[in-house]
């Protein structure tokens, strides 16, 4: 069979767009770096606009491209980009710094911004408390964070981008979202179909996922 014909029969690799939001300095760049690159960056600078990081992951035999949008926390570096962050987003990761109460208090504002951009309630959201390696400086107690996460229907991950022992936990933030998105298969295939103009894809939409995540 000719390769170009075969490629029209195969569904294209799906891309899940996940945005990472939160105050400046909470560690969004380091978390996304840890997930996509497997390490902690020696040095970071404030993100300007957005940095894209991608990782191909395999879930139940399907290769999915997780496209992580590492957004800027500083208002002056993000204001022209905000519309782009939220457009066609598939999942949202809210990050705070466990050693900085203000970054936790500000989550309410980040959630309001997200809601204000018509992000549907079906778009999964998770909450991440970063910098747990700084054990002597913790200001946000776990039970307070858990209560907040519950109230907003989010899973809570407390972790550290810096501590290599936490790298699996960091992966599970993004993998749990990718698994949930895969389970919402029909919706996402329809999105892909519209963008590609390929008609066949709706055929494969009914399978229910048994994702282990
Ligand atoms: N101890 C510790 N420091 C961290 C951790 N994650 C990030 N940092 C440090 O926190 C600082 C800010 O990290 P970034 O990842 O650049 O923060 P950001 O949220 O991307 O900031 P903006 O791009 O300005 O929005 C850097 O000095 C990092 O080295 C962590 O898990 N533990
Ligand atoms: Mg950054």
UniProtKB/TrEMBL annotation:
InterPro entries: P-loop_NTPase, Rab33A/B, Small_GTP-bd, Small_GTPase. SMART domains: RAB, RAN, RAS, RHO. Gene3D superfamilies: P-loop containing nucleotide triphosphate hydrolases (3.40.50.300). CDD domains: Rab33B_Rab33A (cd04115). It is an enzyme of class 3 (hydrolase). Belongs to the small GTPase superfamily. Rab family. NCBIfam families: small_GTP. This is small monomeric GTPase.
